[in-house]
Amino acid sequence: MEIIKTTHLTKVYSNNGLEVKAVNHIDLSIEEGEFTAIVGPSGSGKTTLLNMIGGLDDSTEGTVKIAGTNINSLSENELIDFRLKNIGFVFQAYNLIPVLTAKENVEFIMLLQGLSEKERKQRSEELLNHVGLTDKLDSRPNQLSGGEQQRVAVARALASKPSFILADEPTANLDSHSTSTLLDMMAEMNEKEKVTFLFSTHDQRVIDKARRVITIEDGKIIKDERR
Asked: Which of 91, 102, 163, 174 could form an S-S bond across to 178 if both were Cys, CB 3.0 to 4.6 Å?
C-alpha cells in the first residue's frame, strides 16, 4: 500500500532576489513498511523535502498525498488535525517539553487526540517499556541522556498510531552506543510491527540500516537504490 506520494514537488526560496530551488520537481512513492533513508550533502534539500511531506512547510508547486489525501488542499486547521492523527515526527533536537516527565511527554499527543486518562497511561507505559525506559517514566528530559531523550521522542511519535514516522537527522546528537541502540529499536519496530520510517540523514550508520536509500543533490533525486 502506498503511504506517501509526491508529484512534481517543488520548493523555491528567494535569496537576495535570486530564486533557489531547494526541492526541484520530485516524484516519490513510499510504500507501507519501508525503512528508507534520504541522503545528500548539506543544502541538498532533504530536510525541506521531509518538511513538505510532513506538512510543516508549504510547497511552491506540486502535491503531497498521504494515504490518498492531498494535504496541499487542506485548510490550516485540517492540516494540524491530519498531522496529529497520521504523522509521527522525530527531530534532531528531540523537542521534548522540559517541564513534563517522559510519560507525560508521550501522553501529550494522546491528550490532544482526546484519549481517556486510562488509555493514555496504558499506552505511554507500554511504549516507554518498548523503547527500554520502564525505569525512566517519571524522569524529566534534563535527567535523561541524549539517547534516552531520543527514545522518548520515538515513543511519543508512535503514541498517535501514525501512518508513518518522519525522522530528521535523529542520530545527529547521539554517541555511537546510543545511535546503535536507537537504530536497532526502530529497525525492530519496522520489522515486527511494520512501522514505516522515512529518514533524512547523513549518518552512515543510518544509511547502512536502511533498506532503501534515496540520494538527493541540488533538490533532485539522482539515485534510488533498494536493498
From this structure: 174
The H-assigned helical ranges of the chain are 46-53, 76-86, 102-113, 117-130, 146-159, 176-193, 204-209
Confirm if 211 and 199 have CB atoms less than 8 A apart: no
Those residues whose C-beta lies under 8 Å from the C-beta of residue 110, and which sit 6 or more positions away, are: 119, 120, 123, 124, 159, 160
Residues of the chain with pLDDT under 70: none
Helix (H, G, I), strand (E, B) or coil at 223: strand
Task: Judge whether 107 and 120 are in contact, CB under 8 Å.
Answer: yes
Joined together, the cell numbers standing for residue 103 give: 510519560
Q: Which residues share a beta bridge with 212?
A: 36, 226
Report the distance separating Cα 223 and Cα 213, nearest Å.
8
Q: Please enumerate in sequence order all residues whose Cβ is within 8 A of that of 51, keeping only pairs 6 or more positions apart, or say none.
A: 57, 168
Q: What is the pTM of this model?
A: 0.90
Q: How many CA atoms lie within 13 A of 102 on its CB side?
A: 28
Q: Report CA dihedral (133, 174, 194, 29) to the nearest 10 degrees.
A: 150
